Amino acid sequence: MGSPPNLDVYVCPKCAGTLTYVPAADAGQHVRGTLSCEQAHTYPVTDIPRFVQDEGYTSNFGKQWAEFRKTQVDSATGNTESRDRFFNGTGWPASMSGETILEAGCGSGRFTEIMLGTGARVISFDYSVAADVAHDSFASKGATISQASIYEMPYRKGSFDRVFCYGVIQHTPDVRKSFFNLVEMVKPGGEIAVDVYDAWKWIFHSRYRVRWFTKRMNQEKLLAWCRKVVPAYMKVMPPMHPYNQIFVPIKDYRGARPGFTEEQLVEYSILDTFDMLAPEYDQPQSAGTMRRWCKEAGLTDVHIQVGGNGLEIRARKPATAKAADESTKRALETAATAAA
């Protein structure tokens, strides 16, 4: 009878209690049942643990990664784009054997694959059903994946050597809270790497002139529009990436991604056009804001650079228990002041 792998990593996201798995009576060899704690909080398991009732504000991401599950995965494209972005942004070593990494927002698993290649133990989650896409592709290779929210993560605080989160926090309702929640998951002495859209880079982007409408569109219709309009645009307009986006809310990666075939570039452009027009939330941040948040969280060795989707931030949590406690206290006090 099947059971979810690596149950030791999970705790109840509501009370932090230990979870017990009970398989469904008709589960057979399938992974299907419930996780429950002593406080009677119960979560279904259907192939993967489900710590949320639905996809909430992330349904567009579930759809896009089901549709484009291999578009950004290096082993499928034959390129090293995801690998290069991961290591250039994080500054982490190519070998992390013996370490445990939390990946917040795995999407289709483009970075899950890279982290698995380092020998690390990779624990991933996604709020959307993209978690199923990543599970189908990478569970057999060692990834432990669940469907969960960044606001109620089912893990013990301070239990990860590294926390990685790319392409996520700008798409959450409260970017600051998302960031601080991730910091709480890092062990003393551990490292965190996140990225976020750059407020200055995107301030004149044409997407923000149309998103008030496109984010409310039926997702099937929006995706159909992208599939029709993006290739048509690429046939009649010269490649001007990224400057065309000042005037036209369409991604066009011709000439911007060496090594990709023409077919791959068209697919990638459709994907990222949908990706920028569909999300419910799109909240860029400035480098100054991110540096301030790192300071408030008590992080050290803070490095912020322009790259990838905008700003890439990496930092370390203080190594000593005393410093870590003071860091957490400052973060909680700041959060309480902001909420007052």
UniProtKB/TrEMBL annotation:
What CDD domains does the entry give?
AdoMet_MTases
Note one Pfam family from the annotation.
Methyltransf_11
Record organism: Candidatus Viadribacter manganicus
Can you name this protein? Answer: Methyltransferase type 11 domain-containing protein
Methyltransferase type domain location is 102-193
GO MF annotation terms: S-adenosylmethionine-dependent methyltransferase activity
Tell me the superkingdom of the source: Bacteria
Q: Which Gene3D superfamilies match?
A: Vaccinia Virus protein VP39
